[in-house]
Amino acid sequence: MSGLGPGILMAAAAIGASHLVAATRAGAEFGWQLAWLVLAVNLLKYPFFAAGARYTAATGESLLHGYLRQGKGYLALFTGLNVIAAIASTAGVCMLTAAMLTQFIPLSIDTLAFLVLVSSLLLLILGHYKWLDGVTKVIMLILTLTTLIAVSLALTNQWGQATPTSAVDAWQWANVGFLVAMMGWMPAPIEVSAWNSLWLLEKQKTQSVSPEQALFDFNLGYLTTAILAVVFLALGALVMHSSGEQFSDSGAQFANQLIRLYSQVMGEETRYLIGMVAFLCIFSTTVTVIDGYSRTLNMGWQLLVKQPDNPYRLNLIMLTVSVLGLGLILFFKGALLPLLEFVMILAFMTTIIFAGLNFKLMISTHLPEAQRYGSQMRILSWIGLIYLISFALVFVYWYSTKN
């Protein structure tokens, strides 16, 4: 486990709202209709995520240094958008963690969200996150195996039976908002590529990593997230879709429904074990999100104003992001799915800019020619950009006309 690289860590960070919520909900509400879209969005976002590993392995510097080389305005744009993304994403994963915690502690979701943020900050500031990170790899493995077992049992139970057809067409105009939300965090927000870049730099401090090794590690992690997204969708499609039940907007009720998905096929006696594993996974994601965004913002500020690194500034950024994230949670008053949908839609709309920055970097002349994107990756990148821009325009039109 200790030998797993940045690509695997990125995969672990991605198994959060995009998988547990978006993919599972897609299967529960629309059956198998969106399975191909989950795979397509992972494929079309691939060049923009891969930039983090490829650029850093080729140059020995982070993506943020690359943005600065392109011009100070590019780094300022990335950092400014990251401020918004950091607050929104922290709020989303923190409320999801608090929702899971309602299954064990009879407090309001707002109070639990506050406790989750305080605990996360203490872990990070006191330096105990390395211990949590080691445990997290095991917890993530348990959740993955549990989900695979649950899907296998659900498939066995339905073997030989007629597959239920969806009563709801996923491609109705009214579902545009959900489709965009699901794609926003699938497999994760694109700015996570900068985290991967920073993690790779840290790894290079202790061992040499060739561009080929970095790319293999990234590809393994990325493929894992894509496959697991389909697995979570399958769980929703096989268990909940056939029942006709839909997920509740309420955070506490959603957590109860999600855990029940597993216990229906694995036995009621596994309910609390599954709930604890899911909670620990999402709690780890919350800590990772606060840490990843804060470190990226800290590095962006450091490069923009040309100041040396300052650990107190990093702690201040973590505290500020957490407080503003809590404010967003209080605004949504325990409505988990509307908050996550808002965060994911925001992620999708900013994805266009982050994707464009990464693509521009991977074809820039200061990158060694052998490490620049070739014709195949350029074509896939252009298709991905056209796809993202087209869906964003459709969403803007849909949003302007839905009322």
TrEMBL record:
Main subcellular localisation: membrane
Transmembrane residue ranges: 33-53, 74-98, 104-126, 138-156, 176-199, 220-240, 272-293, 314-332, 338-359, 379-400
Keyword Cell membrane part of the UniProt annotation: no
Name listed for the protein in its UniProt record: Nramp family divalent metal transporter
UniProt-annotated location(s): Membrane
KW Iron-sulfur (keyword) present: no
Topology of the protein relative to the lipid bilayer: Multi-pass membrane protein
UniProt entry keywords in alphabetical sequence: Membrane, Transmembrane, Transmembrane helix
NCBIfam families: Nramp_1
Coiled-coil segments on the chain, per record: none
